Amino acid sequence: MPYFYTKEAEFVLKTLKNAGFKAYLVGGCVRDMLLNIPVHDYDITTSAKPDEVVALFENTVSTGAKHGTITVLVEHIPIEVTTFRCDGKYADSRRPDEVIYVSDIKYDLSRRDFTVNALAYNKDDGLIDLFGGKTDLENRILKAVGDPKKRFLEDALRILRLFRFASVLDFSIEQNTLDAALECSDTLKFVSRERIFSELTRAVCGVNTSVLNSLLEKDALEFLGIKGGEDLKALALLPENSKLRLFAFLYLTKSDSDLVLKELKASNKQKNYCAALKNLLTYGNFKTKEEIKTACRIYGEEEFYDFTVFKENILNTSAKTEREMLNEIKTNREPYLLGDLKLNGNDLKQLGFMGEEIKLKLEELLEAVTENPKLNKKPILLKIISKDR
User: Fold this and answer.
1) DSSP readout, 242-288?
2) CA distances (Å), 54 to each of 49, 129, 233, 380, in order?
3) Mean of the pLDDT values across residues 203-229?
4) Structural element, H or E, at residue 72
5) Residue 2 pLDDT grade (very low, low, confident, very high; cuts 50, 70, 90)
6) Phi then psi for 78, rounded to 5 degrees?
């Protein structure tokens, strides 16, 4: 098959080759090229040492020089270049204590997590596939390179990566690899919460989300406050909206989203989003446009729309009427925010209102136009407010 990759990646490969070094595209980018899906990041493995890579390129960042990785910037596009290496012992179930540079790519590929990620390519040597990764791609199966238990004990993050790949790529997991992942799942507690959050968020956005069931049945995420619950297959019914998918995941696992998101060090944006949907679910059904406008003002228009999607796909409850009313509000640009008023605080100041009184009067006017959008004309609002003077 033809391999298509960017001119920036080609430039890095050619530069290393012309300097007398071996260099290959490696890992996920090769996997995705073989699957004919978009490649977002290009990684290169090379026989060049980090200092030699730095010397060859004008713009570099030593993002992981300790572990042999230099980021090369080509027209502001980052490409990670890592020296062929073997890993030393893993004392913390996450990072090797040391790396050992090697001259043969076979040693570098043998340390990688899964066969489908242990693939390398360049135009001269073609596809380097020492562990049957291409066949596993064709069979849509995930299998560890070498001893699966050893792979997961080296780096516990690989356990979450396994389930993320299975979910996103819609692959099955080879039984020995699955058994080893579940057996080693207690080591997940050694992984940084930020990395867990990242992997989990991507996993719940896959098409094969039911693969996560076995992880939860093992109570592998109980240390975060996440327990087993309903079948997670329903997550795949939702649009690929990471905030909504994560909220639904926490809902289906009957988790306390506030506590879990705090433990995962999630962003305030994610926390506020989940809190908004929880409150909307508590309210239940919205029967009038006024109620919907109030909800949108308090929790956000995007949040209200996602609430209707959640109701239909997770709760199996119709939200057609609520969505139709929301569309009418948006189409007609019916006011429900202070900024929608055709009269502002400066107008009230000119009428003699001051301080907190201005805020109260604007809120009164907003309540009036929320109920009757036809009132949202400056002369009418001035007439209403003048009655209070």
Assistant:
1) HHHHHHHHHHHTT--HHHHHHHTT--HHHHHHHHHHHHHHHH----S
2) 9, 28, 47, 69
3) 92
4) strand 69-74
5) low
6) -80, 135
Q: Would you say 135 and 45 are in contact if contact means Cβ atoms under 8 Å apart?
A: no
The tokens 């572990």 sit on which residue? 67
**Both tokens of residue 322?**
């609520």
* Number of other CB atoms surrounding residue 58 within 10 Å: 7
Give the separation between CA 136 and CA 218, rounded to whole angstroms: 26
Measured in whole angstroms, the distance separating CA 262 from the mean position of its chain's CA atoms is 17
| Residue pLDDT, tens place only, 124-140 | 999 999 999 999 999 99
Distances (CA, A) of 133 to 23, 81, 140: 19, 22, 10
Given this model, what pLDDT does residue 85 score? 87
What string of DSSP letters covers 90-144?
A: BSSSSSBS-EEE-S-HHHHHHTSSBGGGSEEEETTTEEEESS-HHHHHHTTEE-B
Determine contact, residues 237/208, Cβ cutoff 8 Å: no
Contact present, 274 and 247 (Cβ < 8 Å): yes
DSSP 57: -
**Is residue 109 over pLDDT 60?**
yes
Average pLDDT over residues 339-366: 78
Tell me the pLDDT tens digit for each residue of 127-186.
Answer: 999 999 999 999 999 999 999 999 999 999 999 999 999 999 999 999 999 999 999 999
Q: Which of 156, 225, 161 is nearest to 185 (CA)?
A: 156
According to DSSP, residue 40 is labeled -
Classify burial at 55, counting beta carbons within 10 Å of its beta carbon; exposed 0-12, middle 13-18, buried 19 or more. exposed
Q: Which two tokens stand for residue 42?
A: 């290009």
CB 206 within 8 A of CB 236: yes
Q: Answer whether 13's CB lies under 8 Å from 81's CB.
A: no
Strand partners, 144: 114
| For the chain, percent of residues with pLDDT exceeding 70 | 95
Amino acid at 27: G
Query: Going by DSSP bridges, is the β-strand pair 43-46/77-83 parallel, antiparallel, or unpaired?
Result: parallel
